[in-house]
Amino acid sequence: MPVVNRIADMSAEMTGWRRHLHTIPELGLECHQTAAFVAERLREFGVDELYEGIAKTGIVAVINGQGPGPTIGLRADMDALPITEETGLDYASTHPGKMHACGHDGHTAMLLGAAKYLVETRNFAGRVALIFQPAEEAGGGGEVMVKEGIMDTFEITQVYAIHNSPGKEFGHFFTTSGPIMAAADTFHIHITGKGGHGARPHDCIDPVVAACAIVQAFQTILSRNVHAKDRAVISTTQIHTGTVDNVIPETCYINGTVRTFDKEVQALVLRRMQEIVAGQAASFNVEAKFEFEFGYPPTVNDAEKSRFAVAVAEEIAGEGRVDPEIEPVMGAEDFSYLLEARPGAYLHLGQGEGAGVHHPKYNFNDEIAPIGASFFARLVERAQPVKGA
Which structural domain range is residue 83 located in? Predict the structure, then answer.
């Protein structure tokens, strides 16, 4: 596997960075210790420009290449999850109830490794903007950084990111052109009826029966309204009501998630959900308040940039170790906001067997860090080659 030799030499160093970050997981936009560590490393490397405090704790570092040219963006997420770690590692989380259970510590270490290499070699034209982003898991740090103007301020023309994938073949890359991850929206339904004794339902207006009808009717949206070729998910994940066995409750709460890849399908699902809630409320004589929260948009890879990223990945991983046409997944990712602002690509990197992401026993595989860092470095060198080189 042709990992860049200089980056391979940094393996132990990247492992050290990653494991330190693993001990200090932070949530949302509050990645203060993490950002301070990243900024300290970037200053040591000698980046040309360093901007802190974007989206509260986000960082953009700029490295100048040889001669004029565009700016390519590389992004790593830094935040952790509100999970109590169960790995038993000697570098486990020291922050109770917080854990790097999705590998963002590893993503940050990979981008730091690429940064050190790019500062040393500068074998590219133009500039590279290294984006260290907080609040991917919750809070939409990518959206905040875009709204604070990073794409325009740093004149970024294209942007890329990697996410580790436990359970996938070690060192293999996986991506696709077009949608690769879904939009993630949330719905809330508050039903109000008339409570009373369970033995006298005729004196009540039962919100539980209405809730059951609503949840069942939602499933007809996918089977009877959404075209069979279009992917969508409606999952009701919470129903809360009642207190004891012999009392019909006054209220009922329903909550769940909607996943789509296409804005027209998203609009169709929303319209039908609104109609079903209103219709069932009238049918069962209850009041029903429907709320729909738009979350992260779909993550959509640019076709040209995806093909380019695949070519670079094949150079790093080797023949037969890159899948360029995977099925999109229903998970969501706030790198979507960066891809809405600029063309680019998002790739998964297999890290072999182990606990899945968001699991209390998950751990990033440090052996893939040189692969990811090499991919980032070669992206820059291939996208913006030095003239005459």
Answer: 5-180+298-383
